[in-house]
Amino acid sequence: MSIVHPITPLYNENSEVLILGSFPSVKSRESGFFYGHPQNRFWKVIASVCGQEIPKNIQEKKELLLSHNIAVWDVIQSCDITGSSDSSIKNVVANDISKIVSESKIEKIYTNGKKAYQLYEKYILPDSGIDAICLPSTSPANAAWNLEKLVMEWSKIKK
Asked: Does the annotation mark 91 as catalytic?
């Protein structure tokens, strides 16, 4: 069954960094915002990298990202997916990032994990022409990376 991405991209004219995930988890789709699963370390990592408190609600999450010129979206516009499993993704229709890029100051694109990177390379790079940098996934399924290692690696978004 095909599921359409329910969350609009977050960016503004000052956004310089675009972070792309693959597709929102069940928890993110339910909450209506990115990285909604309480075990996902995205918000802890971003807050640490930006030297800020961990945001507690969607409004604080939006303010944290936008105040640090970070845009967030996902590679996939719609797909078949079982639960939140990236490995189950099939029949991908990619998002068009050209509007975000043209309406902002995006200089760098990062992907949150290998699946997002592979999908970006396949579906978006041919049109965007902008190389992406793959960062380790903040998903709790990526147990090989503890929070400290994630923060060190993700710090490159602020350089």
From this structure: no
Find out whether 11 and 104 touch, Cβ atoms under 8 Å.
yes
pLDDT tens digits, one per residue of 79-121: 999 988 888 999 999 999 999 999 999 999 999 999 999 999 9
The distance between the two most distant Cα atoms of the chain, rounded to a whole number of Å, is 41
Residues forming a β-bridge with 102: none
Task: Report the 10 Å Cβ neighbour count for 84.
Answer: 18
Which of 12, 14, 40, 69 is catalytic? The answer is: 40
* pTM (predicted TM-score): 0.96
What's the CA angle centered on 95, arms 93 and 98, to 5 degrees?
140
Sheet holding 70-74, edge to edge: 70-74, 17-21, 108-112, 132-135
